[in-house]
Amino acid sequence: MYILLLTGLKKYDLSPDKIEFVVCTHGHSDHVGNLNLFSNAIHIVSHDICVGDTYMLHDFAKGIPYEIDDDIEVVSTPGHTGSDVSVIVRNTKHGTVAVTGDLFERLEDLEDFTLWQENSENPEAQQYNRMEVLKFADTIIPGHGPMFAVPNEYKQQLKMVMYYEQSTVEQGPSGSKTVSESSYTIIEEN
Ligand SMILES: [Zn+2]
Q1: 150 CA distance to ligand 1 centroid (A)?
Q2: Is pLDDT at 121 greater than 80 in this prediction?
Q3: 154 C-alpha vs ligand 1 centroid, how far in Å?
Q4: How far apart are CA 44 and CA 48, in angstroms?
Q5: CB-CB contact of 151 with 188 (8 Å)
Q6: Taking 90 as the threshold, does the pLDDT of residue 170 lie above it?
Q7: The pLDDT value given to residue 101
């Protein structure tokens, strides 16, 4: 895995010691690794920041972005876990790019909610943050698929796929059972 990282950086004439910031969108093991290679970098892992050996607090939870420079910031986008972040990069040739981790798993999850909701700790919060990102992002780099341009109908908020599930516990003769009710709504404006 670290060979992939090194060759990827080399393509841009970079090496780990030249990297100033490393961001892990959330703590799942398929999204974090080899942080020790980047010994000169400020590390942001979910809502946690480390500068060298110093652990720093930042109020991501209150919605305050962490600014890396004028065009790059790290914002809180929880739902998949309780403390996910996304990296927002403005003024690129792909427009505004959002590196979202598993807030979006792949392009297909715009239409098929099961692709992201089954892995979500808090689907409502995740849905909210997905909508917020779709409002301003031109391009999304998702957690498990290739980069994609935000389709126009989503970008203009003409279309939104929502899914609600409600579970209730019912008492029956053979004990209690959980009944789930779900509704799936596509909102389209013309
Ligand atoms: Zn994950």
Answers
A1: 21
A2: yes
A3: 23
A4: 6
A5: no
A6: no
A7: 98
Cα three-residue angle 144-163-32, rounded to 5 degrees: 25
Residues 6 or more apart in contact with residue 152 via CB below 8 angstroms = 158
Domains of the chain, earliest start first = 2-188 (3.60.15.10)
Sheet containing 66-69: which strands, arranged edge to edge? 66-69, 72-76, 85-92, 95-101, 139-142, 148-149
55 alpha carbon – ligand 1 mean position (Å): 23
Q: Ligand 1 mean position to 28 CA, how many Å?
A: 5
Question: Does residue 183 have a pLDDT over 70?
Answer: no
**Between residues 153 and 97, which one has the greater pLDDT?**
97
3-state secondary structure 14-32: CCHHHCCEEEECCCCCCCC
CB 24 within 8 A of CB 31: yes
User: Which of residues 156 and 96 earns the better pLDDT score?
Assistant: 96
Dig out the tokens for 5 from the structure.
Answer: 């990282």
